[in-house]
Amino acid sequence: MSNNVISHIGVVDSIAEGMVCVRIVQSSACSACKVASYCNSAESKEKIIEVRCSDADSYAVGQEVTVMADYSVGAKAVVIAFVIPIIAIFATIVLLLMAGTTEITAAIGGLCIMIPYYIILYVMRKRIEKVLTFYIKKQM
Length: 140
Known about the structure:
The protein is of the alpha+beta class. 39% of the residues lie in helices and 29% in strands. The model has no long low-confidence stretch (mean pLDDT 84).
């Protein structure tokens, strides 16, 4: 596998027309530790990844597969999920403080700026899906 690919092994959860839903277990670095069961910081979560593919009928529910994405996809997701919101909140707070509002009003305004941001994300979800793509391959 190439060094510029993120991959997770998962199990096919469901199949619809042109869509394969794969269940993966996303775990923190601590969860592989031998004493993780005695520690509160060990964490793992199940996630469902939806993968669009032309050969969806060739997969079966319960089949083990590898879900892959380029690192650039991960970087774009981080920018959309974290970087842009933090910049928007910070810029809103600074602008409101410069306009002479109180700190509480600026903080509330900073949080409220996320409402239009998430509405924009929802409206653009189909376009974002085309940019943030995953691929699957069968386990050998």
